[in-house]
Amino acid sequence: MAEAKKKAEEVEVKEAELVVEAAPAAADPEAVKTTAKAGKRSEKALKEAEEKAAKEERKAHANEEDGEEAAKPKQAAKPARSRLERQGKKFQGSAKLVDKTKVYGLEEAVELAKKTSPVKFDATVELHINLGVDPRQADQNIRDNLVLPAGSGKNVRIAVFDDAKVEGADISGVEAVTKVLEKGELNFDILIATPAQMPKLGKFARTLGPRGLMPNPKSGTVTTDVDKAVAEAKAGRVEYRVDSTGIVHLGIGKASFESAQLLENLQAVLASIKANKPGSVKGSYIKTVHLATTMGPSIPVDVAAIG
């Protein structure tokens, strides 16, 4: 009896072992995976290991793709277009009239400027002079004003900050100008004031200063002879000042002007600039001179022809 009972128990143990061995094959491997509470076999550690393996696989795949891209022959880059080629057709047509290998005399440059205006409106003829000065030095900060003999061609709006009514001014009177300034409506191009009234404009300095409208004795807009200042402004008085790079930019008329008128204005400006040459400047004072119209090509002018 005991031996039979022992054999029955052995049979039951073997059957149990067979069931255990067959279970992992039939079930989901993830379902029977055993995990520890902590350590390398913990659920968190196993998840991090899987993510790391996936990341390494993606990295290896990316390196393979980069290697394939590098093996491909590179296409030749298209050469960049020149500045002239990026301009409009009208500008290109005007630029063809200017020979960049030569410099022009004053009369020839003026004639060419009138021909090379590519716009439909009456363009301004601009003068650009590169001076051999250092604007950081007080005596070399070139600044002056003059009346162009043939006028500027601009319709200038003038405001006069004075008690007396001035003929020719668009806005006149301290009270009238103050109301305009308080509203922020700067509907004028030049503001003229007398020395006695200047302190009243102090509170508007932040409005007028950045726009270049603050009256200044050097520009002729602070004066006791207001009638004369208004007449000169209407006649074509212009102000020029060297910029931080030592260049003077100034409009000398309109493309619709006669060549003789433009030449007269050009010579007047050049004479004024030469008269303002500082004594401390050594070497060449006028380096280069160029003429151009609004949105038109630049025309080099012969400095030797200026004298």
Overview features:
single chain, 307 residues, alpha/beta, Ribulose 1,5 Bisphosphate Carboxylase/Oxygenase, Rossmann fold, 3 domains, 4-stranded antiparallel sheet, 3-stranded parallel sheet, 9 helices, 9 strands, 38% helix, 15% strand, elongated
Low-confidence stretches: 22-32
What's the overall geometry?
A: elongated
Report the CATH superfamily of the largest domain.
Answer: Ribosomal protein L1/L10, rRNA-binding domain
Number of domains: 3
Output the helix-strand order. HHHHHEEEEHEHHEEHEE
> How much is the radius of gyration in Å?
42 Å
Q: What is the level 1 CATH name of the largest domain? A: Alpha Beta
Let me know the largest β-sheet. 4 strands, antiparallel
What is the fold named in CATH at topology level of the largest domain?
Ribulose 1,5 Bisphosphate Carboxylase/Oxygenase
Second rung of CATH, namely the architecture of the largest domain:
2-Layer Sandwich
Percent of residues in helical segments? 25-40%
Structural class by helix and strand composition: alpha/beta
Count of distinct strands = 9
Q: Mean of residue pLDDT?
A: 81
Total number of helices:
9
How would you classify the quaternary structure?
single chain
Q: How are strands sequenced across the largest beta sheet?
A: 7-1-8-9
* Content of β-strand: 15-25%
Task: Give the end-to-end Cα distance, rounded to a whole number of Å.
Answer: 141 Å
